[in-house]
Predict the structure.
Amino acid sequence: MRDIWENIKDFFGRDWTPAEKILVILCCLLLGIIKGFLISPIKRGLFCGNNSGNTYNRFDDGYWLDEEE
């Protein structure tokens, strides 16, 4: 068990090149985004709005006011 903590300490204590820093940050960011999508409570997708727009049922015969019979 001691070896694991020493390895972790060595991993974070070493010198990082700028490319390695960017890759580690991007990997952590993308893994966090993927994890967030997988555990999110959204079941039917995202919807922005409140359904109060101008909608009509074009198949409803009683809708049209200008019908001539």
